[in-house]
Design brief:
Thioredoxin domain-containing protein, 4 helices, Thioredoxin-like_sf, Thioredoxin_domain, 42% helix, four-stranded mixed β-sheet, 2 domains, Glutaredoxin, single chain, protein-disulfide reductase activity, 19% strand, alpha+beta
């Protein structure tokens, strides 16, 4: 009987992480906020950039698109706000950092499409 219990526990220990991983990559897991208006999403994205940075200027249209669509996003100039850049460990720009209640949840380095940044709000990449 002990061998059956040990085998059952081993099976559960193996199967649980596999099932959780598969579930985390399912399409539904990236869509928890489909019915929530952009302005009511939890948290916000901080877009760290600088006026002298060519890559930041390249990423600026994505920032503008999200802002115009009502997504909670804030542009942070690293030269004007070095303390906030230091708080989030910004060592290269552009960076999109998703923050909920002051705590970083995820980030994207470099330029990214609006759809990729929207997935930050939804818990994905």
């Amino acid at each position: 009987m002990q061998k059956v219990i040990v085998a059952f526990v081993a099976l559960i220990c193996f199967a649980a992480p596999v099932l959780l991983t598969v579930a985390s990559y399912s399409h539904e897991s990236f869509q928890p906020h489909d019915d929530v208006p952009p302005r009511d999403l939890p948290g916000k994205v901080l877009f760290f950039s600088a006026s002298w940075c060519p890559a930041c200027r390249h990423a600026d249209p994505t920032y503008q698109e999200l802002r115009n669509a009502g997504y909670p996003i804030r542009k942070v100039d690293v030269d004007s706000n070095p303390s906030l850049a230091q708080k989030y460990g910004i060592s290269s720009i552009p960076q999109f950092v998703y923050v909920v209640n002051g705590h970083e949840k995820n980030r994207i380095s470099g330029s990214a499409s609006a759809s990729r940044i929207k997935r930050l709000y939804q818990g994905g990449w």
